[in-house]
Specification:
Elements lengths: L7 E6 L9 H12 L5 E7 L6 H5 L3 E8 L8 E4 L13 H16 L4 E8 L12 H4 L2 H26 L1
Parallel strand pairs: 1-2, 1-3, 3-5
Antiparallel strand pairs: 4-5
Helix pairs in contact: 1-5
């Protein structure tokens, strides 16, 4: 049985009022509807910023999904393991500043989970939009599959470690 210290958290980040910038929230909603894995918590963090601190502190592994203005072709999926807020891609909106501050707060408080960040390159929006572009929307299942694969690897590690200690 996976205990609290081994909790895996999948967190989608994004502002759904800004079109493609909300891709992390859309992926989280997709995962929540499709019930990805037992033993994994999935939340739509939206633009929650410091409201998400406790969720992150309660996890050993945090898998985040967010849009990135990283200069890559729109729709490019990346994956990084940032150690500090400076390791994150350039910000798109105010929520990224909050996310970076949130990660710094986690480090200052001393409970540091393993963090993986799946980024989806987007072109910064010129006009607010509630809709994802078709190019980004069609990537949701692929992104979700990558996130589930990452979470599964951690679950397997925990289960193997559990069987060794029993």
């Amino acid at each position: 049985m996976i205990d609290c210290k081994d909790k895996i958290l999948i967190m989608g980040i994004g502002n759904i009022l800004m079109g493609d910038e909300g891709i992390g929230s859309h992926v989280a909603q997709y995962l929540l509807k499709n019930d990805p894995l037992r033993g994994v918590e999935c939340i739509d963090g939206g633009t929650g910023s410091f409201y998400l601190l406790e969720c992150i502190q309660d996890a050993s592994v945090v898998i985040m999904i967010d849009a990135a203005n990283d200069g890559n072709k729109s729709g490019t999926i990346g994956c990084i393991s940032p150690l500090y807020s400076d390791d994150y891609p350039n910000s798109l909106t105010a929520h990224d500043i909050g996310l970076k501050d949130l990660i710094d707060a986690v480090y200052l408080l001393g409970k540091i989970p393993y963090i993986r960040l799946f980024t989806i390159s987007i072109i910064p929006p010129t006009l607010p939009s509630l809709e994802l572009t078709p190019e980004i929307e069609k990537r949701i299942p692929e992104i979700a599959e990558l996130v589930i694969k990452e979470a599964n690897q951690h679950l397997i590690s925990y289960l193997q470690a559990d069987s060794i200690t029993d």
